[in-house]
Structure formats: structure tokens, C-alpha cells
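hey so u asked for the seq, here:
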Amino acid sequence: MTKLLESDIEQLAIERLEAKRWNYLYGPDIAPDGETPMWTSLDEVVSAIFR
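ran it, C-alpha cells below
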């Protein structure tokens, strides 16, 4: 029997969102210490969610 892994579910979700024209950005790249940060701290992410 084939096991369903978390990574399989994640990949399916990414593919479905991309099909709806969402842009996928790799988390470590957009983290405050990443190559192209979108936040100055991880606290900003939590604040943005609960606004």
C-alpha cells in the first residue's frame, strides 16, 4: 500500500493554488533572513494574519 505523505498533500495544495493563479513563494526565501525577505521579523506575519 502506498503511503500518503505530508509532502504529497503540500504539493497538491501548491498545484491547485497555482492553477487558480496564486503565486508560490518558498518560505525560507521570503523569511526575514532569506534572499528576498517580505518581512522584517516573523512577528509581522502573525500580526498580518490577525488584523
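The CA atoms of residues 2 and 14 lie 21 Å apart. The mean pLDDT is 89.
lmk if thats what u needed
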